[in-house]
Amino acid sequence: MRRLGSVQQKIPCVFLTEVKEEPSKKRDCQQFQVVATENVNPLALEANIDCALATEKLDGTCCYVTLYKGQPYLWARLDRKPNKQAEKRFKKHQHTHRSCKGFTWNVEEDFKAVPESWIAAHRVKHHNGQPLPDEHGHIPGWVPVEKDNKQYCWHSSVVDYEVGAVLVLRPTGEDEDMLEIAAVPLAELLEQTLELIGTNVNGNPYGMGSKKQPVHCLVSHGSVVVRNPPLVDFQQLYSWLQENPDGQVEGIVWHCNDGTLIKIHRHHLGLRWPDGRTCLGDRPVVIHVDVTVNEYNSKDLFTSLSGLNGHCFSRLKDIQLEL
C-alpha cells in the first residue's frame, strides 16, 4: 500500500487560482475570494496527478499523532497567527498588490504567543532559529490535547491516554461502502494526521450525533477513497461535484506517488458546501468498540459506543447514543 501524505502544510489547489474582488463564500468578513481558473497547476502535473489516489476532503479540524512526554499523544492544529497590527499591515499589502508576496514579517514582534508545548509543523522554514510564516501569514503548528484544556474538549472526547486509544472512523475493508467506528491504539497512528469530525466541529456537515448526545471521531487522511473520480479537468470536476451522488463531498485531495498532496475545494469552483446530503453522512456504519466501563476512564463516548458494539446503522448520521 502506498504511503499516504501527512497534512502538515496548506495544500495547493489542482488549478491555478486568481483573486476576485467579491465577498468570500468561505470566510466571513473577507472581501475577496480565491477561485480556480481552468489551468491545471504545474505542481499537479509534475507530481503526475493522473496516477494519484483520489480521496475525500473531510470537513473538520486537523489533528496529528506524535510523542509527548514519551508517549503517543493526540495533537490539535494551532497555527500561530499575526497580532492585530501586523494583520492590518498584511491585509493592506495584500489589497494593494493583490498578492501576499513581498511582505516582510518580524516574527518576534508580529505574532501572537503560543503555549510552551507548541511545535511547528513539518517543513516549516526557519531563519535564525525562528519559524517563518507561510504565504498566508500563518505558522502552521500543533499543541498536545491535554485533558484539562476545555478549548479542546471535543478532541479529548475521542482519546483515552490511560488505555492509549482513540476513536477512528474508517472503511471496514470488507464492504467498499461500509464504515466502522473502532477504538484504535494511538501507537498505530504515530506520525499520521487525521481529521476530527462530529457534532461540534465546523457546523457538523455530516449530521453526526446531537447537542444532548454529541458524537465525534477521527478519520485518517487519505483513508476515504473517492470511487470513480473524474478526470483532472475543470468542467468534469465541476459537473461531478454538482451532479454526481458520489460528488457530495467538500472536495478531493489527491495523494501523489511522490508524497505530494493536491486538492480541490467546492468553494474554488463557486459551489456551496454543505449543499443538502453528504456522501459520508449517508454511508452505512458498524460500531466496533468493545470495552468495559472499568477499562476506560472516560465514561462517556467510549462507554456509550461500547453499548452499541456490533450495531449497524444504515447511515452515519443515524447513530443514536443511549442516555
UniProtKB/TrEMBL annotation:
Superkingdom, taxonomy of origin: Eukaryota
Source organism of this protein record: Sphaeramia orbicularis
Keywords: ATP-binding, Ligase, Nucleotide-binding, RNA repair
Classification lineage: Eukaryota, Metazoa, Chordata, Craniata, Vertebrata
Residue stretches spanning the membrane: none
Reactions this protein catalyses: ATP + (ribonucleotide)n-3'-hydroxyl + 5'-phospho-(ribonucleotide)m = (ribonucleotide)n+m + AMP + diphosphate
Cofactor entry: Mg(2+); Mn(2+)
Protein name: RNA ligase 1
Pfam families linked: RLIG1
Gene: rlig1
Protein purpose: Functions as an RNA ligase, in vitro. The ligation reaction entails three nucleotidyl transfer steps. In the first step, the RNA ligase reacts with ATP in the absence of nucleic acid to form a covalent ligase-AMP intermediate and release pyrophosphate. In step 2, the ligase-AMP binds to the nucleic acid and transfers the adenylate to the 5'-PO4 terminus to form an adenylylated intermediate. In step 3, the RNA ligase directs the attack of the 3'-OH on the 5'-phosphoanhydride linkage, resulting in a repaired 3'-5' phosphodiester and release of AMP.
Annotated EC: 6.5.1.3
Example GO molecular function: ATP binding
GO terms under biological process: response to reactive oxygen species; RNA repair
